[in-house]
Amino acid sequence: MKINLSLSLAALFLLLFSVRTSLAQTHSIAWQNSFDEDFVKKQQIGFSSDSKYLAMGYDKGSVRVFTADSGFVVRLYTPHMYHVFCTCFRPGTTQIASGDRKGNLVLYDFAAGKELWRAKAHDKAVTAMCFSGDGKLLITGSKDRRLQVWDATTGALVKTIWYKKGNKVQSLYLEHDGRTVIAGITAVTRGLRMFDMGSGVETENYEIGNLEHFDVAPDGISMVIGSLHRKIYLFNLKKRSITKTLKGHKRWTTDVCYNNTGRVMFTASNDNKVFAWLADGRKHMPLLKINRDVDGVKCSPDGKYLAILGENSKLTVMNVASIEDEIAAYVEPAK
Questions:
Q1: What pTM value is reported for the model?
Q2: What structural domains does the chain harbor?
Q3: Cα dihedral sign for 42, 92, 137, 237?
């Protein structure tokens, strides 16, 4: 009788523990994809605006399109001869812009299996790109000190914006009113540069030491910036100022992104970890640790999936739909 009672109590304890764990931790790995090519830094992973697909470029010029929920490859095509640094979906379409290390730019409709246009965009690698909210314009950045503005429908070059100081463009964002393009540019001192879309003139410059990547929340006001000296900056685009400086990673912060609500942000680092944060920086929790540097993070537009690119030659996609509640309930283990 004592043995049966002990077993019953043990079973009850395990049940309660499993329920508590499931309530406390809801994120999980949805799928992973390994790639065999020698790893070269990937700058950008693209999600479709309906969150059904994601695209990633590979070393030998190919692009793979996956279903976001299961990782099924729905399209594999090779629009380039060289390593693809960037992939970006045109809003509301199945069209994907991709740029390679020789400066070539291609717009491809993966559903139709058809190339729409291509251009020699830059003299050096295409390292960042973004579409305007309405999908009419595509902006590309590179190591050649140019921003190029394209008509996304025809592939015609609309405008060239030159900048004198700095090296390559790591991140790009066109403000909601379409008047200002913001570039994260590397240099000895790295910073945010603002350019007027009409004149192409640089209007503002904010030197932020060791800036690596940035992302802008859906409200178009809040920006998170990752830096190479472990700091994470919160920047207000309305006030044009840093509002808070955060510390969490033990090494370089390699990438950052917001979720669909803008209330959660994710950070990646070459300390091999991904963190999830409340967007005001009050609280953060570990999300994933791999055995190599984490190079990129990107959240789907619906907030359900987080794509994580690691130098362990894996693309990992996690379910993060309930991550805000999970961070709020998280209690840091006692040291």
A1: 0.89
A2: 29-329 (2.130.10.10)
A3: negative
